[in-house]
Amino acid sequence: LAVPEDSPIQTVADLKGRRIATELVATTKKFLKQKGVAAEVEFSWGATEVKVPDLVDAIVDITETGGSLRANKLRSVETILVSTTRFIANQKSWANPAKRKKIETIAMLLTGALEAEAKVGLKLNAPKKKVDALVKALPALRNPTISQLASPEWVALETIIDENVVREIIPQLKALGAEGIIEYPLNKVVY
What we know:
Layout: E1 2-4, E2 19-22, H1 25-35, E3 40-43, E4 58-60, H2 67-71, E5 74-76, H3 91-95, H4 97-116, E6 119-127, H5 131-137, E7 145-148, E8 154-162, H6 166-175, E9 179-185
Parallel strand pairs: 2-3, 2-4
Antiparallel strand pairs: 1-5, 6-8, 6-9, 7-8
């Protein structure tokens, strides 16, 4: 539930008699009823954030990070619902072996995409004599891949690591003799 940054609305109770735009009309009405607040709720056909303050007093919108709210100079008054993504199959489809296989494949790919969100790939080149120290410093799902380069004294290492440690690891790898360090995003990590 969001309002313009400079709005006098501070609480849900302040919405009494006000207009609210949302794509989530039923959820919003249920929330307001639980709070004992009578307000006008109207359906929004998208671009909900741009409707305040000219067309409505507040909005209810789905947001992951709040970036769109901030970009439109809105602030959150209250979180109505916190949810997570679920992949659901009905029992009849699950009982059918062909459909079950497809469901399991889709679930595996979705899980792989979610796993990839927090990881990055890392490639680097290094002198062979530095490999042991680099491997010791380099976290990996299992072990890094080591490939021979055209120069017999050099190898390439590749690994998958948690994104939250990469900014600490890269300077360490550089200090240990790594060169040509490349960080890249991942689409899926399937275990």
